[in-house]
Amino acid sequence: MRRLAATLFSxxxxxxxxxxxxxxPTQGANPxxxxxxxxxxxxxxxxxxxxxxxxxxxxxxxxxxxxxSIVTLAALIAxxxxxxxxxxxxxxxxxxxxxxxISEIITHxxxxxxxxxxxxxxxxxxxxxxxxxxxxxxxxxxxxxxLPLDEAAEKQRATRVGEQFGQITPSLVQYTTDVLFRDLWxxxxxxxxxxxxxxxxxxxxxxxxxxxxxxxNRAMDNGLTREEAGEVVGHLAFYAGWPNAFSAAPVVxxxxxxxxx
Amino acid sequence: MRRLAATLFSxxxxxxxxxxxxxxPTQGANPxxxxxxxxxxxxxxxxxxxxxxxxxxxxxxxxxxxxxSIVTLAALIAxxxxxxxxxxxxxxxxxxxxxxxISEIITHxxxxxxxxxxxxxxxxxxxxxxxxxxxxxxxxxxxxxxLPLDEAAEKQRATRVGEQFGQITPSLVQYTTDVLFRDLWxxxxxxxxxxxxxxxxxxxxxxxxxxxxxxxNRAMDNGLTREEAGEVVGHLAFYAGWPNAFSAAPVVxxxxxxxxx
Amino acid sequence: MRRLAATLFSxxxxxxxxxxxxxxPTQGANPxxxxxxxxxxxxxxxxxxxxxxxxxxxxxxxxxxxxxSIVTLAALIAxxxxxxxxxxxxxxxxxxxxxxxISEIITHxxxxxxxxxxxxxxxxxxxxxxxxxxxxxxxxxxxxxxLPLDEAAEKQRATRVGEQFGQITPSLVQYTTDVLFRDLWxxxxxxxxxxxxxxxxxxxxxxxxxxxxxxxNRAMDNGLTREEAGEVVGHLAFYAGWPNAFSAAPVVxxxxxxxxx
Lengths: 261, 261, 261
Description:
Chain A is mostly helical. Chain A has 14 helices and no strands. Chains in contact: A-B, A-C, B-C.
C-alpha cells in the first residue's frame, strides 16, 4: 500500500515517469515520456494529468484503484496503445492485480479486441514481469480445471445466437460457443466479474456500442454494481476519450434502468 | 503447397515465429514474438493459437487459404497493426497471393482505411519483397490499361451519391467518382471480387458497420459467395475481435437475405 | 508563403520525404518513407499522392491550407498514427499554425481522443519544435487568463447533460463541466472556431458519428462555414479513409440542413 501511495502521488512517475536504470526496456516496451518532454510541448497537459488524473480520478470512491487499473489496461490494449502499457502494468501490480490476472486479461482481450492487440501487449508485460521476478509459477496454466458452467443459461444463449446467425456465419456461432463460453469464460484465473469488467471496458474504449448491452448485463449479473459501472464510464473518458464515454453513456443508462432493482 | 503446409503446421512460426537470420527486419518491420515470449506472459494464448487458429480456422472449408490471407492482411492494415504484418505478408505469398496483388491491396486500403495505414504497411512489404527477391518487374505499374467500366451502373451510382451529398461535400462526391470508381476500382492488378473482399474485410475489421451493406452487395455481385461471406465474419472474429464480428453479423445477414437467390 | 509553396510542390517531401540530416529523429518520431521505398511496393500509391493529394486536395478552395493542416493533425492524432506526424507538424508550421496552437491541439485531443493519443504525439512535436528552435516562450502557459464564458449557454448544457446522465455516471458529468467546458474550452491559445475544427475532425476521423451533431453545430456557432464543413469531410476521406467520410456525410448534411440560414 505504501508503494501504491508513493506511485499515485509521484507526479513524475505518473505523467510519464523515469524508468529505473535496471528496467531497461526491451523491444515493444518503450519507456514513457519524461515530464520535461511533455512540458516542452504541452505544459497544460502535464498540469491536467497532475490535477485531474492522479489528483482526483484515481482517488474517487465508487471504483477501487485495482478496478481502475483493470479498466485502464483493457482500454490501452483494446486501443493498441503500447507506449504507456509498461507504466500501467506496474501500477496494476501495485494496485493488487495479480500476475495471473494480467495474463488472463491479455488472453481474454485477444478474443474481445483482436489477436494482434493481445500479441502487442506481450513485450511490455514480459518486461514488467521480468523486472519484478515474476516467473512461470505465478502464471495460469494453458489448460486446467474450469469454473462450473450454468448449462441452462449457456444453452439458451447458444440457441438464441444459433437461430440468429447459424445459417449466415456458422463458424462464428461455433467458435463463440466452443472457444468463448465453454472455455475462455470458464478459466479460473480471472473472476467472472473481473472478466466482465475487462470486456465492458474494452467495448467502451473501442467504441463497440452495439455490444455493450449484452456484456454490461452479464457484468452486473456477475456482480458489477451500478455505481461501479458509472465510474467506469467516467474513468474511460480520460483513457479512451470523451466521445467514447458519451457514446456509451446512453447504453449504460438504458441497461441500468431496465434491470430489476 | 508443401511450403504452405509446413507453415500452417509449424506452430513456432505461426504464433510468433523466429525470423530467419537472412530476413533482418528493417525499420517498421519488427520481427514477431517468439513462442517463449508469449509463454512468459500468457501460456493460454499460445495454446489457443495452436488449437484454434492454425489447428482449425485456417483449414476450414468455405474460404480458401488464399482468401483468408487477403482477409487477414486487410484487417491488419485497416487496424494499423504492423507488428504481425511481416509474417502474414509471407504467409499470403505462400498461399498464392501474388506480389502485384499485395501491392494493389495496400494501394486500395489507402483509400478505404486512411492514407497513413497504407504508408505504414510499406516497410514490412518492402522487407518481405526484398527477402524473396521480388523486384519492380512483379509490381503493377502506376498507371496503365483499365478494366472495362459498366457506364450505366456507375452513372446510376454517381447520380445517387451526387443527389445525396453533392451540395454538402462536393469534394467527397467528386473524388469518389474520379479517383475511386473511374480509376482505383478499374486497376487490373486485383480482380474486382478480390478488391471487394479487401474492402468488406477492412470495413468489418474497422467497425465501419454503416458501409458494409453497399460493399457486401458489390462483393457478391463481383462473385463472393454466401458461404465465403459468412466465413469472412468468423475469420475476422479472431483477427479483429469478437465485437466487430458480432456487429457485422446482422448486416451480413440482412444483405444475404434480401438478395435474390 | 514561398516555403509553403515549395513544400506543397515538392513531391519527394510530400509523399514521405527525406528528413534533413540536422533533424535526426528522436524516439517516437520516426522519419517518413522515402519515395523509392513506396515505389518498391506500390508505385500507384505514389502516383495518387502526387496527383490527388498535393496536386489537388491541398490546393482546393473552400478550406485554407492552414485549416487543412489542423484537420490533418487532428486525424493523425485521433487515429494514433505517429509515423507521419513529424512531416505534417512541419507542414502545419509552414502553413501558419502557430507553435502555441499545436500545443493546444495536442492538449485538446487528450480529452477528445484519449490521453495516450496525446502523449504519443509529444515526441514528434518535441522533435519538430527543437529542429526549429521553438522554445518554451512560444508555448501557452499551463494556466492563465481564460476566454469569457457564456454562462447561460453553459448552464443550459450542464443542466441537460446532468438530467440525462447525472444519476448514471456522475463523474463523467462533473468532469465534463469542470475540466472541459469551464477550463479546456476557455484556454485562449486556440480560437474556439479552431478548437471546434479540431474536435469535429477528430470525431469524423475516429468514426465517432454519434457525437458529430453537437460539435458540428458548436463549430458552426463558432464560425465554421458550410463550405468549410463540406471540405473537411472530403479532406478526411484521404486521411481517415472513405468509410469514415461517408459515415459522417449524412450527419453533416442533417446538421447543415437543420440550421437557420
